[in-house]
Amino acid sequence: MESPVWEDREIKFDLPNVQYNLRSGEKALDLIDYIEDTKGNPDDSGKLLVTNLRLIWYSLVHKKFNLSIGYQRILSLQTRTVYSKARRTHQALHVMGVGVNMRFEFLFTDMSMKTSKVSAFTSVFDVYRLYQDTLLYREVKLRGAIVQSGQLVILPQEQVYSNFQGVWNLSSDQGNLGSFIITNIRMVWFADVNESFNISLPYMHMSYIKIRESKYGPALVIQTSETGGGYVLGFRIDPPERLTRVYQELKSLYAIYSETPNFGIVYQPDKNPKLANEASEEESVESKIEQEDRQRNEKLNLYLAEGSTAGAKIREPFYCKELGFAMEKLRDGYKLSDLWNVIPFKEESSEDK
């Protein structure tokens, strides 16, 4: 599996091309236009990308400015009515987040001036609610209500592949006999005498799976990631042929999951009128993001073409207070902020610095 999942567990600033670098299994679910990061980057036009793991805001004016807010770090979400400098009312999304020994406050303002009664941030609340309702896809659960009357409570997208009886959990000196279940999402073990003594371990939190010698003989050993608690779990499965079968099946499903992780969130755009309209036009969120670069290039070509035509008027230079130097007067139909959008952006590499 690629590097441990951090996208829903951290708040990060100014990541290189964050909107293009979604991890495996992360899906873009909505893209909201004309959003201003009012507290951090006021007056910057940007977009808010909603994925199944986090919120991403990125500026269209200053290409290095962006935010990545993992859902696990969000304390509260609410909408507010705010006023712009022109004394117009706008709807804003207020996000309270928590980091390591600090708190964050974000305010994302919808500057689109649309009069629709449907909130621009509806998808944010919907996806965040789905994230909270699907924690078993992404969290190690000890002694949880995952078994009822000896039967595993199946998750919505879960398929059970194997159920092995008579498996010893070696976490205590005497061991505990129980059932070992393998699905497409996780492995589950629970005790026969007390089904509340159990563990649910998603593949995303497995660091390694091995067969090792123990004082009880050959045992299946699974170590969890640091974010999954850093546990070392041991299971004795008899006879050895059965142990090998469980090991190979678990390794195989772990490899499949690592290629295409399932984080549990299924968002149906047809419940959001704005997204339903976009879907009817067969325009995906990913294609909208890809089109941004093409649109900037088209605008650049148009700007240059206007200046290269025969008889083009030479514009007198003037002193620009905002930039601090003299520049040619902009062509009709362009604002100073547009100038940064028509210049192609090239991310600095470590070799260039």
Give a brief outline of the structure.
By secondary structure, the chain is an alpha+beta fold.
Could you characterize the architecture of this molecule?
- The protein folds into three domains: 11-134 and 264-283, Roll (PH-domain like), CATH 2.30.29.30; 136-259, PH-domain like (Roll); 292-342, no CATH class.
- With 353 residues, it is of the alpha+beta class.
- Mean pLDDT is 84; it is low at 272-283 and 342-353.
- Strands 1-5-4-3-2-8-7-6 form an eight-stranded antiparallel β-sheet.
- It has helices at residues 122-133, 240-259, 273-280, 285-308, 336-342, and strands spanning 11-13, 28-37, 41-51, 54-59, 66-70, 74-83, 89-99, 102-110, 141-142, 147-148, 151-152, 160-169, 176-183, 186-191, 198-202, 206-214, 217-224, 232-236, 317-320, 325-328.
- Helix content is 20%, strand content 37%.
- The chain is elongated.
- The longest helix is centred in the C-terminal third of the chain and has 24 residues, at 285-308.
- It has five helices and 20 strands.
Tell me, rounded to a whole number, the average pLDDT: 84
Ends: how far apart? 32 Å
By helix and strand content, what is the structural category?
Answer: alpha+beta
Number of domains: 3
| Proper CATH architecture of the largest domain | Roll
Family: Belongs to the BBS5 family.
Main location: membrane
GO molecular function, one term: phosphatidylinositol-3-phosphate binding
Organism: Hermetia illucens
